[in-house]
Fold each of these.
Amino acid sequence: MRLTLWRNARLVTLAGTEPWSVIDHGALLVDGDRLQWIGRESDLKAGLQIDAEHDLGGALVTPGLIDAHTHLVYAGQRASEFELRLQGASYWQIAQSGGGIRSTVAATRAAGEAQLLAAAAARLAQLQADGVTTVEVKSGYGLTLEHERRCLNVARRLGLERRADVRTTYLAAHALPPEFDGRADDYIGAVCRWMVQLNQERLIDAVDAYCEPNAFSPVQVARVFEQAQRLGLPVKLHAEQFSDSGGAVLAAGYRALSCDHLEHLGRDGVAAMARSGSVAVLLPAAFYFLRESRLPPVDALRRAGVALAVATDHNPGTAPTLSLRLALNMACTLFGLTPEEALRGATVHAARALGLFDRGRLSEGLRADFAAWDLEHPAELAYWIGGSPCRRLVCAGMPVEQ
Ligand code: NIG
Ligand code: FE
């Protein structure tokens, strides 16, 4: 047992369902990678053998932030598409003329593993500078067995390289690669075969797909989900981003951990998600960057009791941001979440969206993942646009270099 005391904190635990509150003069006692005790310093048991002590200087301490939806592993950038869209071209027009996901696939296939790792590690460092301790990373810019493996391997190595907990998601059903033009069903067959192999190699924590008329149909997604179910892998879905394709209803039938995007989610989708306990992962940065106008049905989701999470969706095409705090701000200004809902959406509900119950709150027995902020009130996490208020970050009990 090695006990570390982090004292002189103002704690926002997010434990329980009470409205958030701040515990002044708080302390966290960490045993290895777990929180052994949390509370007012004056209530700390006397006579403990403490091995190391840190003064947090009165900083606000929250659970480490969790980014539950990113596409962090890729090469290149797509600023020229941004310019085309500003001139009026649509996301799908650009994709159909060879840009879009396929252009990032070409750049990613051409990059070596070391190059992909260096680029993704630099991105992860930026997420960490903004308080992230757990990040989900999707494949989906490789689209061959070899290249999907490379991207998932990079994701696995990232966590070790940068002291973060990385959860990998297999998203080979992201786009149809050019070598399968006109043969989408054959491609789905390949996606299912590769899943077996990559799962044997322990590279997959969850399976995702892109359900849209311009990507994959519900019938094709169902084949991917059937295979995931056979392998015992949880699923999630890019659903109802540009149209209501019935993706959320389908995903709920497979007890999806989450359905993500959801701007075009209908009533039946909301009800199905409520029944299955799937989390709604809102991605306001993509909504903003694509200059969309249709809002996700936040009120209906709230009324149905669906948990709301907020993530960056970091990717080079639709969400080139590495600040989860910016996504929290946008979730409030664009989607109408309260700052408290937004913060719960990047902590406790984000954890659920990844099937994790050992983090996202500050409670005894949970992982010692926390962020110390130079802020007075937790609402400021959704209030400031930019800046760098994160002072210290601790992941699994260990300080993260920032
Ligand atoms: O989540 N929707 C699909 N995937 C990404 C976009 C990927 C890209 O354009 O490169 C998203 O928005
Ligand atoms: Fe995405």
Note: The chain has 15 helices and 15 strands.
Amino acid sequence: MWPYPKIVAHRGGGTLAPENTIAGLRAGLAYGFRAVEFDVMLSQDGIGMVIHDPEFGRTVTGHGAVPHTLARDLAVMDAGRWYGAPFKGERVPYYTQFIDYCQAQGIWMNVEIKPADGFEAATGAWVARVTRDAYAAEIAAGDPAAIPLLSSFSFEALAAARDAAPDVPRGYLLDRIPADWEAQARQLGAVAIHTNHKHLTPTLAAAIKAAGYGLFCYTVNDPARAREILLWGVDGFCTDRIDLIGPAFT
Ligand code: G3P
Ligand code: MG
């Protein structure tokens, strides 16, 4: 149900480096992580970039928005200065740069499809196609642990991903798990439910596991809470505190 690593570094290197940057991946590696979650959004010209917010202002300076900016202009923006002077000059990565780095270092990827409003289907389809092409050998070999897991809060994005590249597995991200979660997950052909640990209950966790789905939580930063949800049957979670919760955490 969950052939993937149990502990996953959130947004690259959690809070130990600027989120969604290559420096984040490097920080994760430094703490022994070989599993990462990050966010992918389409540029104006339809290219996947690793960034969380559609609007500029938090991790990149200036005014504007990712879906209205060309990839080549996003790719030269500073995504590290906000975090601290040593990271000045970190760029907004292309998704393909993240793939290359993760393949070279043997890092498993949970790719969150993060569409800007109105670009749900386009983003889902693009991420799924690019991932399928980059992992064609692993998909052909049928080793699930070697294949990335796509996830999204957007049903539409995941449906488009399913249609574009059905062989790339999908996890359905839900902040609060609705009553009809199973019907939705079945429609998407999802292999896992990803949910906010704050709203999870032992009863819901048991129901999801009993239905045969993987169960993944975000974003767990307290070791005691992590132990508690693992006892409920949670298969894995992402964390910002890669310094407190290591890859071998039990
Ligand atoms: O994929 C889990 C988690 O990353 C979802 O929330 O806002 O951190 O992308 P966010
Ligand atoms: Mg995310």
Note: Residues 10, 37, 39, 52, 112, 151, 173, 194, 218-219, 238 surround SN-glycerol-3-phosphate (ligand 1) (CB under 6 Å).
